[in-house]
Amino acid sequence: MIEVNEELTGCGCVMLFELAIAAYATACGFVAAGVLSSFYTLVTNRPVRFSVELNTLWRGAVDLVLCAFTGPFIIMRNAIRGRVQEQRPVGWLVASTAIAAGWSLCSGIVMVQLVLAMRHGLM
């Protein structure tokens, strides 16, 4: 269980504290997805997409990790494009946003844990 300093928060608002951590991790996941996809586009001169090329084991592993961390960006890019160009319903955009947010939360937690592990010298 997380202990919250009541002097700092003003109350024992553990749930609000956990919600703030989840929002931070979600934002970190979205930022990581955007930065990685922009870097991929810069290096390869083509947009990132859900495809894994299995020419070599190394290439397949890199593509799999890339898809795992850039997934929220790909989903949101395709959802916005579908809404604007193909006139898909708003529910499609809302569902895509919810899926991307959940995925981003998971990848954001991994990213935050990775940064904390690197900070403490565990990696």
Briefly summarize what is shown.
With 123 residues, the protein is mainly alpha-helical.
How would you characterize this protein structure?
The protein starts with 5 loop residues before the first helix and ends with a helix. The mean pLDDT is about 90. The chain is mainly alpha-helical. The chain is flat. Helix 2 packs across helix 3 (about 55-85) and helix 2 packs across helix 4 (about 90-120). It contains four helices and no strands. The longest helix has about 30 residues, at about 15-45. It has one domain. Helix content is about 75%, strand content about 0%.
Shape: flat
- Work out the radius of gyration: 18 Å
Oligomer: single chain
Number of domains: 1
How many strand segments? Answer: 0
Unreliable stretches covering 5 or more consecutive residues: none
Number of helices: 4
SSE order: HHHH
Largest sheet: none
Strand percentage lies at: under 5%
Through-space gap between termini: 25 Å
| Helix content, binned percent | over 70%
> What's the overall average pLDDT, rounded?
88
